[in-house]
Specification:
Layout (H helix, E strand, L loop, with lengths): L4 H8 L47 H4 L6 E8 L5 E7 L5 E5 L6 H12 L9 E4 L8 H8 L3 E3 L9 H10 L14 H12 L11 H9 L6
Helix pairs in contact: 3-4
Length: 223
């Protein structure tokens, strides 16, 4: 017989089994008291992003991780409506965390990303890959301001920006779901990003992202 991992998880999380009580689940990496099925949600056509550029049109340098500056991004939420924007470089795995003190509406996210990324050298912001969240509805504005194309993953294909997904998991150590992320200043977030950039990674042959940036670019620059 073959049983999927999703079936196993959902079986363990049945409350009557009491596998994870009120204290045990905190020991899990995700600290989730329940398991929500990962089913596809139907789209009703509301809030669609106009003029999306498919990830299929992204160049080989980004796909093959042969040059730095190709970023993957997403939002990380605390207590609603607090959130921050996270960016991960596909080649070096370096991390950027951008404060969103005014919320995560599309215009607010665009303004914050433009202000942050404009302080980076052009070779560290060649492209941006995002999922289909409505916070990226102003993607054309970002492209025009930074000369940086924004690509969108296929529906329900989070693995297409897996570097950022992994980074967000590491960031949860510092940015808890029950925290008010508006209380973090940009300096606070830069400190957290620097901690991740000093963390050795197996995928980098146990170099840290900071070391890999210095190897590739000769210097480590933050926004």
């Amino acid at each position: 017989m073959w049983v999927s991992h999703e079936t196993l998880y959902r079986c363990l999380y049945i409350p009557s089994r009491k596998v994870f009580d009120s204290t045990t689940f905190h020991e899990l990496r995700t600290a989730r008291p329940i398991r929500r099925p990962r089913g596809k949600k139907r789209s009703h056509g509301r809030g669609r992003i106009r003029n999306m550029v498919s990830i299929d049109l992204r160049g080989p340098d980004a796909d093959n991780r042969t040059e730095p500056g190709h970023l993957e991004g997403d939002l990380v939420f605390g207590t609603r409506p607090s959130a921050v924007a996270t960016l991960a470089d596909r080649q070096t795995r370096s991390t950027h965390v951008v404060a969103l003190p005014d919320g995560y509406r599309a215009d607010t996210v665009a303004e914050a990303l433009i202000a942050y990324l404009s302080r980076l050298p052009a070779h560290r912001r060649r492209s941006l890959t995002w999922d289909r969240g409505r916070e990226m509805a102003e993607h054309e504005r970002i492209t025009a301001a930074l000369d940086m194309p924004v690509y969108f993953c296929a529906p329900h294909h989070r693995w297409q920006r897996g570097t950022n997904e992994n980074t967000n998991g590491l960031l949860r150590r510092y940015l808890r779901k029950n925290a008010d992320l508006c209380g973090f200043s940009q300096d606070d977030l830069d400190t957290i990003a620097a901690r991740l950039d000093d963390r050795p990674r197996r995928v980098l042959d146990w170099n840290s992202p900071r070391q890999r940036v210095e190897q590739v670019l000769g210097t480590y620059v933050t926004a």
